[in-house]
Amino acid sequence: MFVARRIPEPGLQSVRDATQADLWEDELPPPRDELLRRVAGKHGILTLLTDRVDDELLDAAGPDLRVVSNYAVGFDNVDVPACTSRRIPVGNTPSVLTETTADLAFALLMAAARRIPEGYDYVRAGQWKTWGPMLLLGPDVHHATLGIVGFGRIGREMARRASGFEMTVLYHDTTQATTEDESELRARYAELDELFAASDFISLHTNLTDETRGMLNGAAFARMKPTAIVINTSRGPVIDHAALHDALRDGAIGGAALDVTDPEPLPPDHPLLSLPNCLVVPHIASASHVTRARMAEMAAANLLHGLRGERLPTPVNPEVYEQK
Ligand code: GLV
Ligand code: GLV
Known about the structure:
Blueprint lengths: L1 E2 L7 H8 L3 E2 L8 H7 L5 E4 L7 H7 L5 E4 L9 H6 L4 E2 L6 H16 L2 H9 L20 E5 L3 H12 L3 E5 L6 H7 L1 E3 L2 H7 L2 E4 L13 H6 L5 E4 L8 H10 L4 E4 L19 E3 L8 H19 L17
Parallel strand pairs: 1-2, 1-3, 3-4, 4-5, 6-7, 6-9, 7-8, 9-10, 10-11, 11-12
The site of one glyoxylic acid (GLV) has 6 residues, from loops.
């Protein structure tokens, strides 16, 4: 099998114990040609969201490939239909990172609202001379309106956090939650237009699909409040970054806090990084010790089940088990 990066122990350990693993040891992802070369003839591969799994890679791996285990909940890097048509199960790591990711989304929301990075820069730059009545003012978080786009597991955990701050919570998804869920989470369904117009904070929790790519574009920003703060812990391309840059620069919205970007990584000279109202962190939403270790165990379990020809604990294409 091929493991495309060092993942936390004990996930790595169980993979090592079980079988001969070809491990890519670098901090950076394997270059494409190296990846294609290393997967040749393998029975299983463990990939990260930086490794594209498509027909080219499946061809390079060859007919012995039995499983693709992705070390992430998101799997937009994997061409799932291509795997399904070859009857290759694909695994991901759902649920274990739900609360950890919502924690970071809420931390970004608070940091952007209360201008924590700007305050930190100000102190470090030696500019702190006195208590300032007008210094670094921002919007309140408590009792504000939060719009959640994508009301899956992570979006719902975001709603739970918001209710501690007595926020009004609107959500949008392709399907509406049950009345019981809505009342438990104190969230109300809204069409996107209403959510954009009414929210002080807009937090994205969708998958990246053809429908969600570029969902936050110039037209969407134009509907938002000029004070609105956008938080993204989903996937970068859900936001049109050129439109975001213009909206932040021109004051169409108040701020953005991004864990994910397009492209990723964001180059240091990217125009977004010159804006004081844009906070960017390097895709760390699931980065707690416990969560990353659990993700490693799940990814290892998916890989090992697949190698043994057993059903993956968390397949994203369970239909491979139905085809005969
Ligand atoms: C990280 O972004 C993940 O999808 O797990
Ligand atoms: C996380 O587990 C999600 O898919 O929402």
